[in-house]
Amino acid sequence: MKRSSSVFSRLSVFSIFLFSSLIFSGCQISENNSSKISVITSFYPLAFFAQEIAGDNADVINLSGSKSAHSYKISPQDRVKLSQADLVIYQGVGLETWTQDVISELKQEGVAVLEASHGLHLNKREEEEKHDEHEEEHEEEHEEEHEEEHEDEHNHGEFDPHTWIDPVLAQQIAEKIAKNLIEVDSQNAQEYTDNLKILTDKLQILDAQYQSGLKNCVQKKAFISHDAFGYLEERYNFELFPIAGLSPSDEPSAKLIAKLQNIAETQHITHILTEENNVKKYAELLSKEAGIKILSVHPMSTVPEGSDYFQTSQNNLLTLSTAFQCQ
Q1: Which helix (H) or strand (E) holds 115?
Q2: Where in the chain is the domain with CATH 3.40.50.1980?
Q3: Rounded to the nearest 5°, which phi and psi values hold at 242?
Q4: Strand pairing of 221-224 and 271-274?
Q5: What's the pLDDT tens digit per position in 212-247?
Q6: 223 by DSSP, 3-state: which?
Q7: What's the pTM?
Q8: What's the CATH superfamily of 36-122+161-203?
Q9: What is the dihedral of CA 262, 265, 267, 269, to 10 degrees?
């Protein structure tokens, strides 16, 4: 009996030890999982900046993935994720179509929200572009109802949202992101500050590369398929004539195409900068009619597979310097 009792006692002690270990291990796993904050961004550039600053301290989600931020519509599952996030970052100024109601709801739910473009020096849309867009919408009033949904994607407000393409404005966006990360996760404030410094240093180098790379050029003018490079034009003193407006889903009128053909002849423009969207066919038409070359650029709302923000920016610089025949 004593031996049986002794064995039972040892088994009981072992069981208690094993049970305690599992509980302790489970607590550690839970603590490790919960130690990361959840950050959701509306599209790639914001996700890239947030991840560079947060490092391993945050799970950063790019909500729109490889889809266009201009036209992305959130799903019920997306809405749940947003409500569970520690920080939601969106661009604003009409870039995203889903934010108007959702953002105010998230704030009421106590979710920290950052509008990345808030407080930046923003360029107003060209009055001529808005006028052309109004004419096109008027001409299409007789079309089917599904076209109205497509037109909704064109409403981008009064200002140009493409601030992330400019390395200087990108530094300001990064600073805003770091500030908000520190507010929601103050225990990692020093790491966020250090990582911000690394990121801004890289952006300053990129700015210097653009300044030197576009300094000595034969002619700093070209066509572009989508009016996404306005801030770069202002920063580095060149001019691009857009085939479409601020949205890549915009399509040019016949009047605009004729105007661009005239510009090509009178200003001796030699290149069209295009991206993969529905405007490319018009760029190809203009190229054929005016006898000018096509080069690829990327507005970086998404980036090519295997690339990142900096690599894509440098590729854009190379394209611009080729189009402008820079030394």
Answers
A1: strand 112-115
A2: 36-122+161-203, 127-158+214-323
A3: -80, 140
A4: parallel
A5: 999 999 999 999 988 999 999 999 999 999 987 766
A6: strand
A7: 0.81
A8: Nitrogenase molybdenum iron protein domain (3.40.50.1980)
A9: 110
Domain 127-158+214-323 has CATH 3.40.640.10: no
Token output for 181: 């990360």
The interaxial angle of helices 309-323 and 189-213, nearest 10 deg, is 10
> Given this model, what pLDDT does residue 255 score?
86
Residue 95, token pair as written in the block = 């870039």
Neighbour order of strands in the sheet with 87-90: 58-62, 37-41, 87-90, 112-115
pLDDT of residue 9: 46
Please report where in the chains the tokens 């493409």 appear, as a residue.
Answer: 162
Residues of the chain with pLDDT under 70: 1-34, 126-157, 246-249, 277-279
DSSP string, 270-324: -EEEE-SSTTHHHHHHHHHHHT-EEEE---SSS--TT--HHHHHHHHHHHHHHHT
State the pLDDT at residue 152.
Answer: 41
Q: What is the pLDDT of residue 285?
A: 82
Please tell me the distance from the alpha carbon of residue 63 to that of residue 97, in angstroms, as a whole number: 13
What value, to the nearest 5°, has the Cα angle with vertex 273 and ends 286 and 257? Answer: 25
pLDDT at 74: 95
